Here is the input.
Amino acid sequence: MEIHTALSKQPAVLLACSTLSTDTNMTGTWRFVRPFHDEKTAPCGAACPAGEDIARIQMLTGRGAFRDAVETILLENPFPATCGRVCFQFCEGACNRASFDDPVGIRYVERFLGDMALAEGWARVPLKEPETPRKAAVIGAGPAGLSAAYFLGLLGWSCEVFEAAREPGGLMRWGIPAYRLSKDVLQREVARILRLGIVIKYGRTVRPQDLARIREEYDAVFVGCGLSRSIRLQIPGEDLALEGLDFLGRIRRGEVDAVSGTAAVIGGGNTAMDVARSLVRLGAEPIIVYRRRREDMPAFEHEIIMALEEGVRLMELVSPLKANRDGEDIILTLQEMRPAGVGPDGRARVAPDGERRQSLRVRSLFTALGSSAAPEWAPPAEQSQQLLRLGHITIRNGPAPLVFGGDLTNETQSVTDAVASGKMAALALDTCLEEGWERIIQSLGRARVGPGPALSMESYLGGARADRNRTVVSFEQLNMDYFQPLQRILPTIQSPEERRAGFSEIEGVYKKEEARAEATRCFNCGICNECDNCRIFCPEVAVEAGSGRRILLDYCKGCGICVVECPRNALSLEEEAS
Amino acid sequence: MHEIRFHGRGGQGTVVASIILAKTFFETGYQVQTFPLFGVERRGAPVEAYLRLAEEKILVRSNIYEPDYVIVQDPKLISLVDVTRGLKPGGWILLNTPGPPTDQGPFEGFRLAWVNATGIAVELGLGTRTFPMVNTAMTGAFLRLTEMAPLDTLLEIITREIQAKPEQNRKAAARANKEVQLLGPVP
Amino acid sequence: MKQVLEGSHAVSEAVRLARVQVVSAYPITPQTHIVEAISEFCSDGTMDARFICVESEHSAMAAVIGASNAGVRAFTATSSHGLALMHELLHWASGARLPIVMAEVNRALAPGWNIWTDQTDSLAQRDTGWIQLYCEDGQEVLDTTLEAFRLAEAVNLPVMVVLDAFFLSHTFEPVDVPDQDTVDRFLPPFDPRFRLDTKNPCAFGPITGPDRYMEIRRDIQAAMDRAPEVLAAVEQEFFSLFGRRYGAVDAFLCDDAEVILVVSGTAAATCRQAVGDLRKTGERVGMLKIRLFRPFPATEIRAILPKAPKVAVVDRNVSFGAGGIFAQEVKAALALHKGNTAVYSYIAGLGGRDITTATFQEIYLTTKDTPTPPAESVWVGLAQEERA
Here is the structure.
């Protein structure tokens, strides 16, 4: 086609257009404060006795990087499937999301990951090899002993565990009812621990007098034999009662098929709940008899609610005076109590309400008042330069250092606290032998999560987490512009009727998509999840993406927008050094 | 030039009828122009559509004020709208009515034709009993009034333009074309 | 092939034939059937284009600006309030020298709410740097839309194809829809002079200080100045392929006219009829249709209007405080001419009020009988009580 001249002779367009690169404009010279990626501590991780890096675990789970998430857990806790079932979720109590809508279902996510780790056979291998081979003896294959062995195993030690019973697990095996933790899950988690080369010697009861000999054969000893002495009621007729933990053990050994009639359970702790709830499942009608009020119970609220839902009855403000046999029944005489202020420990006190008495006719009677250490296993009480009391453990120096841990030293008796104790023992022993006794405090300080007392294996080994700012991020320090309310996802949970019918596990497990969705609810407080807000908002394009995010100081003018727009407070601003 | 005004109700296919006729006349060789009453469309409300036919190019693009033909799709509109407004003396008015209009007073001075389009539509299952689609029947009847375009062309256009029940719509047009009663001038 | 087509769909067909690659629109009143048909073309594969449904007309224009800057042929359509909302980005499109084509259906602005035809919406955008072409019938709409892409891409300015609401947008009439091959010969694929290109990075529309801004503006003016010549060339090619041409202006029976009626849009068609009717009664009347409003074809106008002693400009728009907008432009164009042509200004047909052959007869007779033009625009066809 003929092109008309007017169409062919086109002058170039004069455009507002620049091909100059902004690279030449060193806006960094304007700066007097500088932002830096300053990862901080999430409240969940600081609240977790095992010091799990929960914010990171949620981030990885949310991305579907399940194996990375599992390995992150297994660095700090050998029992994710168990803790995912029985942990009292201190993390969720601290979760910043609770100030927004509902806390992240951290325990449900952990159970999902724990189960997946078992199904996939994922495990950790030793993280270092000591120059001199180290060998530890562990007394008791409960959660503390197994944890101590596990963490020592990760540090390259070899361990032998002496266990009086024929099966591992301690209280996890005998003291936690099957509806909360199945035997199968526990066995498979223990099997994974043993893959580190740890040996358990079953049927080997160790007595205190054996310790001296053991200390000669090993480089260190961990005593985690638990609390073997039940606290007594000390009332007439007490021998008519069955001790709660013994009873739970008998159920788990298959020695109890059914219990009928009314049963009184004396106590208000978690064991009392376990006993009462087990009794429901065995066909009895349990009544919890407690001398204070429901709100004063040491049992966790969640456990109390579940017990009441299942039909457990509760008598508050009654204290047993005596128990009498009456044919097949037992008559329990109860002193009525009244609240009497608050004690110096902050707990409510009660006092007898005059002479007011009640009697309660039951078919069976149980006590669940807690336990104490057998006197021969009580941790040493003296003050000495060669003795350290460190919260979760007591350690005595010597040619073979001796650690008392688990329930012997823990303030809170939980599986997760036992894990904390095992970890602290392992880190303390490793430091003691590698660097010397006097370095323990400093070494554990380096490993602590946030303000402590939880410790991190990753930090101990000098991983990235060690550099994390120990400031715990509060809700007010997050930027809520970037979050929307999202419903907390619940796994399937049996109805009270289903629960009463037997000992099968109450809670279901998340599907993959549910786990990812719930983990995505996590604010990832204080850690960079590469959301790129800093990069997107930077007016000077001075944030570089790569593995993590980097500030290009040649161009960063110190405006601080990145710090403000970081949803999770993973950046801070500092004065430019003059 | 011939100017035609359609009266109907929103949703009754009044505009479609005007377009079908426009295309029919265009195929026959006429210049055409059709447009709806400009404004807001609501179902059931009285609506109007317009059609211009001419041998030569149609220049005028204003509204139609003095039509040569009026097509009334719904007999009830007569009491609602002045359907003979502006109709040229001697102009045709085509009514959809079940039988010959008893009161021909309003149509004095015009020529009258009627067809039972509703009956045809209902029989052929077009629309619903309460809201029969009479538009294709009316186009068929209108062709008889003008004798300006062949029925076959209309039937062809209906096949092309009407997606729902084309066969029944063709039948409706053909039947109305046959059954329409041309009463002629009303004295 | 000639077919009976709605005016809106004449635009849609042209956009399809132009092989537009990105269409963006906000699909709610005062939008028309134009984008409705295009969205169907996009979804059924008739058009290989992305239809971007946005949340406002401002965004619709932003989207086609982005698309055009990326180097693809882009189109949008709007009307009245939608156009007003685009205002800021109309400046951007021309300033960035983007050959966007937009169909603009002339509808009145509220209040009161009125969706009927009125040119004030598009004329209010006369200073945004867009070329504006006002169409008379469905065929011209289709042809102008095709020409608009050539014109826009030749001068790197956006083009607004303007059509009256209802009288054109909703009216069915025979329109010759050309075949794709011939259109392809007329309109080759878009070959942008500049585009966003990651291999050759540059920033479009950066800060441009007092040392540069004025030259860039002067270049836009230069492009506008070239537009009439380019339009003529484009039309020459269009004519050779399709046998139709429209011109920047169209003079009808002007040579011996005592009064020339100056009109635009669909009123021009009705005016042709009125002029023809008047001529039959011996009146010496002519008509000048203004199709190209921006750039204003002052040269062409000066070649025609001074032939007549009187010119009556009929404006379907009003610039409050100044009167009819075409009349102002015509007066300004004639100011350079040392003739004695008197310009009469009339305002008619606002908000969809009909302009009939009788309206033109009335305007003609009034002009003929009024020895000197009044200073203000005369409003025609007002209801009796309002006139009082």
